[in-house]
Amino acid sequence: MTERDFISSCAESIKSEGIKAFPEDFIQFKEFDESNLPGKALVIGQEFFGSFEILSIDGSLILQASNYARAKFIIYSNRQKPASIKIPKSDNDIKPSINKYEEYLDSIIKRIDIDYKKKFPGSKNSSEVINNILRMLNLIRY
Question: What's the confidence (pLDDT) of residue 137?
């Protein structure tokens, strides 16, 4: 098995198990604000006077988030590139959901790393392989 075969096999395996959706599988909230999104991949930009920019890949400003946790919430919610998302009003709702989601992502990363090291002992390319698999699955870990 080559690394390329491992990457596609591992990505298909994870996809077939079903990838949990953020935020639906990690939080229930009643009070929220709704934000429209462009249906494009987004990234966290620079901190600007205490808030964080949410940018499209081409660098266009999309939103401003009042803190880093809220910025991550927006980015993680954008995985399927929806036209709009619901953002909890309370930061007390946001932080635990992000922590649970990041634990979930970390478990996927750990599983990939363990499987990779079993198939390719001594290889030092696991970070690149993990990044390729996450990219194929459209998963981001900040």
Answer: 96
**Amino acid found at 82:** P
Give the C-alpha separation, 15 to 2, whole Å. 20
Mean pLDDT in consecutive groups of 10 residues from the start of the chain, 142 residues: 95 96 92 94 93 95 96 97 95 94 98 96 93 96 94
| Residue 142 within a domain | no
Give the ranges where 40-122 is alpha helix by DSSP (H). 68-77, 91-119
pTM attached to this predicted model:
0.92
Please check whether residue 43 lies inside any domain of the structure. yes
Six-digit token string for 17: 């198990």
Q: Any idea which residue has 């990041």 for tokens?
A: 102
Q: What letter does residue 78 receive in the DSSP assignment?
A: T
Structural domain for 127, as ranges: 3-136
Distance CA 39, CA 44 (A): 15
Query: Does residue 141 form part of some domain?
Result: no
Residue 132 within any structural domain of the chain: yes
Report how many domains make up the chain.
1
